[in-house]
Structures
1.
Amino acid sequence: MLKIVVCVSGGGTNLQAIIDGVAQGAITNTQIVKVISNNQGAYALTRARNAGIQAVCIAPKEYADREAFNQAFLQEIDQAQPDLIVLAGFLVKIPVQLIRSYGNRIINIHPSLLPSFCGTGYYGLKVHEAALARGVKITGATVHFVDEGMDTGPIIMQKAVAVKEGDTPEILQKRVMEEAEWLLLPWCINLIACGKVKVENGQVLVSE
Ligand code: GRF
């Protein structure tokens, strides 16, 4: 059984896709053991509690400094003893210590085809604003392992989504979620739970 902790900051539609995937059998052999948010008001916490999952908030502003927050965050993760940490719209810089302790056991979803529109400042709607400003005709989503860089870890899977004339950032964000993110993230978690994902020389290999 793959024990996962999901970290969230906002609405939690990706979390919901994981919850539904586990409930409906699209994600096998997996248990969501805890949901962690940095934001007390995140609707994702309600989604977790509605599904009977332990949901906790650890807000940086409640700690004296970043180091104290990082320690509390690490402790919260370690207590759950997860096999995999899933960042599903988590807007907090992950402490390097966590990345080192959980090498190739942290995944993130990013709402573009990496390496486009990523790095500092590219989150949420800003990613879609940048894609529209550049005039790309295809965008999408990427699930990748988290390394010490920003959006630079080994790519597990990507899905393309068409940009259409008249798209606004909001419309494009919705299409990328519906056509890519909500499918891709559960799919990747299931592959990992089935032991089908390996990282070799910084590249992901997915077996049949
Ligand atoms: C998603 O677009 C995800 O790719 C990004 O943040 C957003 C989170 O949305 N990293 P939600 O909270 O899952 O609805």
2.
Amino acid sequence: MSFELQRKELMATQNFISGAWQNAQSGATFPVNNPATGVPVAQVPNSDETEAKAAVEAAAQAFVTWRATPAKQRATIIKRWNDLIMANAEDLGKIISSEQGKPLAEAIGEIAYAASYVEWFAEEATRANGDIIPAPVRGRKMSAYKEPVGIVAAITPWNFPAAMIARKIAPALAAGCTVVCKPAAETPLTALALVKLAEEAGVPAGVLNIVITASSKVVADVWLEDARVRKITFTGSTPVGKHLAHESSRTLKKLALELGGNAPFIVFDDADLEAAVEGLMVAKFRNGGQTCVCPNRIYVQSKVYGTFLEKLTARVAALVVGPASDPASQIGPMINAKAIAKIEEHVSDAVKRGARVLTGGQRLFTDQRAESTYYAPTVLADVDRSSQCLHEETFGPIAPITPFDTEEQVIEMANDSPFGLASYFYTNDMRRVHRVVDALECGIVGVNEGALAAEAAPFGGVKDSGYGREGSVHGLDEYMHIKYVCQGGLD
Ligand code: SIN
């Protein structure tokens, strides 16, 4: 590993099941590679059905006592977890950078972002209030309680290896659920380090179990089949989300699916162009463009099109691409060869359909490594509507820009997508703000703002971007069901 940790024990490389760190029973392992170099940073268990089942057994046993633990006590443990995450932010950031590639400052920023969810849900744990319902007849008392749904299976992605774990596991624990978790095979080390700190914070044995595997389907299939698993929370691709929804229907599990996005970013001609460029830089190039809420289709009104392109190109051309360890780096490597191949395919398809490359448009550092996973931040102008990059998430540092003439036309273009996660628009016309917010088909809207996510806000999409919300008061309800109690004979 290229980074030295202050606490070396945070580099955990085993499963954590029923309070014990353990290898896969089969002894199988697989490497976790640094995406910048392709060099393995650790060897982790390639778990199978045996570990998937053991995790559910542990979670089922622990549920009995965890659900009965007073909310304030659960909150204290989760708050301690938050404090430990913040106290070890630098080490955790280094672990993220080693396996995911994002620049260290950004990785440490992700830790603070992750911790904000843990802290939020520690506080929300004590506020899972129910209702007292005025009875429609005499002699009755009616109420509604919130109860934990049961065992939660959390399946998390590689792009935010800490934040996605935090915003799924913290509310589950706060609600009184127990958890079985499978992080992405690309980035299990961050998840394991977080679990290590959860153990240190006093999360009891069996309440949080983590199973590492490169055979996701094998583990997920066990959890899908087991009726004791009452909820699946997943962030990842739409095809996998649909598969989980389909397969979990046999046991009617509750689902939260945070799936693909294909966010439009609209700049109207009355917008503050400096602010719009700034907002686009933040939203588009965060995590090298490997973010579900990244703008993937940028529409700029004709009157300001040329000026906007000029300002944006200057900013994008100045971005520094490099390894996570270099403090100057703003964009790291892409996660793997498949990711970079998709970016190349999208750029060449757009160019074939008439797009102009204003900056970028190629891999970097191929002289140092033929399979380099670094891609130059790119601006594509005059991108035709039929281009692949406007229909599928590129998940890379590519800003494809298309001009438009009228508000009506751009709303039609923005909504012409099966996805509906985030949308952004810039305007200074207050009437337009309300019209456009109402018209956009999505779960999250940024109005004159490029940085949207926050622990207090509901994050999630509509249409093929999935359902369920993470963060906010709604994020806790996702892990609870309502029990209605009607007591009669009181008159
Ligand atoms: C994601 O890309 O799935 C999450 C992005 C965010 O939390 O802002």
